[in-house]
Specification:
It is found in: Cell membrane. Helices cover 53% and strands 17% of the residues. By secondary structure, the protein is an alpha+beta fold. The longest helix is centred in the last third of the chain and has 38 residues, at 312-349.
């Protein structure tokens, strides 16, 4: 390693030699940087999983524009929407079709003592409102009352129980005092506020939730005419529909606003962002402590070199050399441990935590920057040192 660094730097690798001079201190520093990397990578993983799971329901909607209540920041909160808004929207030039979308949460006791929370979506299956593999066949199945299709990626239960679900051999489930026949499946995956999804027809939905009425859906999905400008239709809808109770967004815009709300306004998103900042601060503090201690321990040697003419740039090079080496040495174990933790969390919770090359590269660059910043701060004492005062 010393030979390689000598060739790369064109001089004796003083920083590396100072690091390996005290193996316990080097091990502690590497462990600290690795710990900071694990913190950052885990927080990024959770934050990315949150963003990913938020958009999953939007991706399966077959629509161009989404109407929601003015106080609805996500698909599952806010007030209901008067169905009258759907008929008003249909009168706006450029709108080709519309359908109601009902949303509720259902607690299903899959096994004695084990409850599963499902997002339940209800709509008219003949309107074909979903983009799913085998979606047309699933929608035909839902036209039969009290039937449902369920998410095979639902957490906390053995979804193998739905493997044979079909009209000829439905899986029977009891929920809210009713018996539902699961006649098909789809794959989506739960998020942070529910374990999975279930889809039913609007009529089945209203029987399952008798406190809901047909005239008050949660959202209204709109299609625009072929060739129509979605942004222009959205603008026309905003002028036609009352902003006091109706929010109009293009579907992609609605998903982006949902992501922004959940990551900046809700506690879970704020906690992940705060954890990310804490991880960075921990890394900076640990590396700063290591480098500042190293500078203090070798201050007399640095002062001697300074007295015989070595410039500040030379000393900065040594400290930055140590900082970058610590970043690289700490990043590798931090990355490997994080990959293992991603896998464990995904197996346990079903959340989509995946390590990709851009994320790893970004964290590596951030780690180098973090260590370089710590190194720059650690050299402040050396900058002001007067050799005459040190001896």
């Amino acid at each position: 390693m010393t030979t390689l660094l000598t060739l790369l730097l064109g001089r004796l690798p003083i920083g590396w030699l100072q690091l390996v001079h005290s193996p316990p201190r080097l091990a502690a520093a590497v462990a600290g940087v690795a710990f900071a990397n694990i913190l950052v990578l885990m927080q990024i993983g959770f934050l990315t999983a949150l963003l990913h799971t938020i958009v999953l329901p939007y991706r399966m909607m077959s629509a161009d524009i989404l109407l929601s209540a003015s106080d609805a920041n996500t698909l599952s909160d806010g007030s209901n929407l008067p169905r009258q808004r759907m008929f008003q929207a249909l009168a706006v030039p450029g709108v080709a079709g519309a359908r109601e979308w009902y949303v509720a949460k259902l607690d299903w006791e899959a096994e004695p003592g084990k409850k599963v929370t499902l997002h339940v979506y209800g709509f008219d299956p003949t309107s074909r409102p979903l983009v799913l593999a085998d979606g047309d066949r699933l929608m035909e199945l839902l036209e039969v009352p009290d039937t449902a299709v369920i998410d095979t990626r639902t957490r906390t239960i053995d979804t193998g129980i739905f493997a044979g679900a079909a009209p000829s051999s439905p899986f029977q489930m009891e929920a809210r005092g009713r018996t539902l026949s699961v006649v098909g499946t789809f794959a989506l995956g739960g998020g942070f506020d529910a374990d999975g999804y279930m889809i039913v027809s609007d009529q089945t939905f209203l029987r399952l939730f008798p406190d809901r009425i047909a005239g008050a859906p949660n959202h209204i999905l709109l299609d625009v005419e072929p060739g129509a400008d979605v942004a222009a239709v959205v603008s026309a809808l905003r002028t036609r529909l009352p902003a006091s109770d109706t929010r109009v967004n293009a579907l992609a815009e609605a998903a982006a606003k949902d992501q922004s709300y959940q990551t900046t306004k809700r506690p879970i998103g704020i906690v992940f962002g705060f954890g990310l900042v804490i991880g960075i601060l921990v890394g900076i503090i640990i590396v700063y402590q290591v480098l500042s201690t190293d500078v203090a321990d070798h201050l007399s040697e640095y002062a001697t070199l300074k007295a015989i003419g070595y410039r500040q740039r030379f000393f900065l090079g040594i400290v930055f050399e140590e900082a970058i080496l610590l970043a690289l040495l700490g990043f590798v174990p931090g990355l490997l441990i994080s990959i293992g933790l991603y896998h464990a969390v995904t197996l346990k919770t079903g959340l989509p935590l995946e390590m990709d090359a851009p994320r790893a590269a970004a964290v590596l660059l951030g780690t180098i920057a973090m260590c370089a910043l710590s190194g720059a701060v650690a050299t402040r004492r050396l900058t002001g040192a007067d050799p005459a005062e040190l001896f």
